[in-house]
């Protein structure tokens, strides 16, 4: 069956179609600067081919989730699931031939790359009997197949690049047709871009990108200036699925719209009558209010936490028949076990629920008959141990814990790390030390973490002229020494 997807009109007003079967065999690369109309082009292609072929969209900004209302695409919010779950979903998507939008909105760049790699690998590794044809659209492909290294960890970059390379190089035999869009050809890995045989090039201003686009379109360098003069929504097309010679296409209208849109000018508000300088530079009023404590009657533990606690109570132990251990001895064993878990370098990037299972096993090995901590208490003690506080934090750090109640549980470790340095007069912890207690390797994420804690009026950060940082905790009256390096 031959299906021609109407993409728009050429310069003479004649319709230009995209041969869907040919596209499945030869793949597509879309390039254009921000605002050139790439997302509009992808939406036109998806809308006009919906119902003819399975569609899978990897969406970094969550703009394509609106397809679900009109065309029945299933929207998956990646931030709500683990990498293992995402890979499992990908296998089921191939089995049931469902059209989906994987929204990566809300994830950091590193999390987006991990999730996209797991998802693409899950589709790629599906059983042979599920190799049905599918369009796999990847928006902002330079994020997932970067030409060089960035702020993300090297193993994450390699995993994401490998998954994208498999999609474009080996995906055709498995029925996967890659449709990738990028703002910058220079930032996209060449081995990924080179596998596309169809090209739609939009407005581009940088010389290096114009030169690469002209090479892909078979144009001479002096003709590359035409790419800079393209109107928004107009693309130069070339490839076996669309045209044998470069043709300009004005992309047609779409029926759905993105959740975000281009900024529009709106009238400025009227200036207040008072003194603007005093209004803008007035000191902030403290607005922190301790949150209401959550009572056991209203607390609803997560399903995974409830399951882990039930398993901990149900698993028999040979120590159950032995004599009860003295509280002081049991507390010492708990401290030693937590110290050993924190000393394991791999534990820094494991979730508390996973480490809790390790904690239970270690406790039984030292003769503790019943788990001395539930998952919630273990998470609290683990955060304190990562901050170098190995005793009972409730006894010695009650003031700090009270102040930290306004923060999410995963921020307790970094807060206590800074609090310990401030209380003991130590230098301010470095971003790398804070990252280790937060379970991340991204320094950008650490900086956003500190900004968030400061926005809750728990930290006041100062940078001296040498670039050394010190942090004050106003509610406690504690201040760290300046950091050892700028």
TrEMBL record:
It comes from Sphingomonas xinjiangensis. Residues 10-76 form the Helicase HerA central domain. InterPro entries: ATPase_Atu1862_pred (IPR014588), HerA-like (IPR008571), HerA_central (IPR002789), P-loop_NTPase (IPR027417). It comes from the Bacteria. This is Helicase HerA central domain-containing protein. SUPFAM superfamilies: P-loop containing nucleoside triphosphate hydrolases (SSF52540). Coiled coil: none annotated.
